[in-house]
Amino acid sequence: MNPIYTVLTVITIILVASVSGCSKKEELSVDDGSEESKVELALNEQYDRVRNGARLVLKYDPDTNAFKGTVENTTDETLKQVRVEVHLSNGKELGPTTPGDLAPGTKKEILLPATGTDFNAWTAHPEVGEGEHSGEGEDSEHGGEGKSEHGHKEEGGEHDREGDHEHK
């Protein structure tokens, strides 16, 4: 076989495998722990993924202009400082909700009112732990150990802003 054809065949196989692998990752219900899914959802779609042991099921309700759902602990240990954020296609961030511990197998109701209607897509994610990531001593991709995604230390209501509401 001609070496050029061999190289082209290998490149083609790698490209097909890469494209196939990417499309399958979007269908999985378990996140890899990264900041959030890079796939934006349409307003009529539901978010249902597990991240760091927290399963977030969330959907936009156009009648109330709010995101409603639950966050559930899927592990056998208490998840510390669980909170939820929604990122809108217009660049606005809703939340995070007030952090709270979540016992094994328990669910918490989530309600994040939208601050406007000038968005057509969204994504969300639960956060676990004191910093952006749940691992103790793990550096955040946004500014180091114990820091939020915004580059400052998270404490209590530090993220409080319009749209930070939840129902218990």
- Pairing-aware structural class of the strands and helices? alpha+beta
Helix content: 10-25%
Rg from C-alpha positions? 19 Å
> How large is the share of residues in beta strands?
25-35%
What general form does the structure show?
flat
- Euclidean distance between termini CA atoms: 67 Å
The mean pLDDT is 73
Topology as a string of helices (H) and strands (E): HEEEEEEEEE
Describe the biggest sheet?
5 strands, antiparallel
Please mark out the parts with pLDDT under 50 across 5 or more consecutive residues, or reply none. 19-36, 133-168
Number of helices: 1
Number of strands: 9
Architecture overview:
The chain has 168 residues and is an alpha+beta fold. It has 1 helix and 9 strands; from the N terminus they run H-E-E-E-E-E-E-E-E-E. It has one helix at 3-27, and strands spanning 41-42, 46-51, 54-61, 66-73, 79-88, 93-94, 100-102, 107-113, 121-127. The strands form 2 sheets. Strands 1, 5, 6, 7 and 9 form a 5-stranded antiparallel β-sheet that branches. A 4-stranded antiparallel β-sheet has the order 2-3-4-8, with no helix packed on it. The longest helix has 25 residues, at 3-27. The model is unreliable at 19-36 and 133-168 (pLDDT under 50).
What's the gist of this structure?
It contains one helix and nine strands.
Topology record:
Elements: H1 3-27, E1 41-42, E2 46-51, E3 54-61, E4 66-73, E5 79-88, E6 93-94, E7 100-102, E8 107-113, E9 121-127
What characteristics describe this protein?
alpha+beta; five-stranded antiparallel beta sheet; 168 residues; four-stranded antiparallel beta sheet; 32% strand
